Amino acid sequence: xxxxxxxxxxxxxxxxxxxxxxxxxxxxxxxxxxxxxxxxxxxxxxxxxxxxxxxxxxxxxxxxxxxxxxxxxxxxxxxxxxxxxxxxxxxxxxxxxxxxxxxxxxxxxxxxxxxxxxxxx
Length: 121
Description:
The chain is mainly alpha-helical and 121 residues long. The protein is rod-shaped and about 125 Å long. The chain has helices at residues 17-26, 40-43, 46-49, 51-110.
C-alpha cells in the first residue's frame, strides 16, 4: 500500500470526495482494515465504542443499495430485450396484414362483377 493511500481522511460536512477516492483504492487491495485515530476524549464516548458496528452497518447498506441498482438495471435490460425480441411479431400483427387485406379485396370484388358474353363471328 502506498504512503499516499495511508494518509488520513479529515471529514468535513458534505465532503464525500476523499472517501470515494479511498473506497475506489480499496478495490485493488485484497486485505483491508480501517483505522480510526481519535483523541482520548472522543475515544471514551459511546459513539467511538459503536464505531465498528456503525461502519459495518453503513457498508452493508451500501452493498444493498448497489445490489438494488444492479437488479433495476437488469430489469430494465430484460424489458428492453423483450421489446426488441417482440418487435417483429408485433410489427407483423399491426402492419403486415394490411397488404393482405388489399390483395383479398381484388378477388372479393371480382367474385361479384358482371360477366358479359360477346359472340364474335
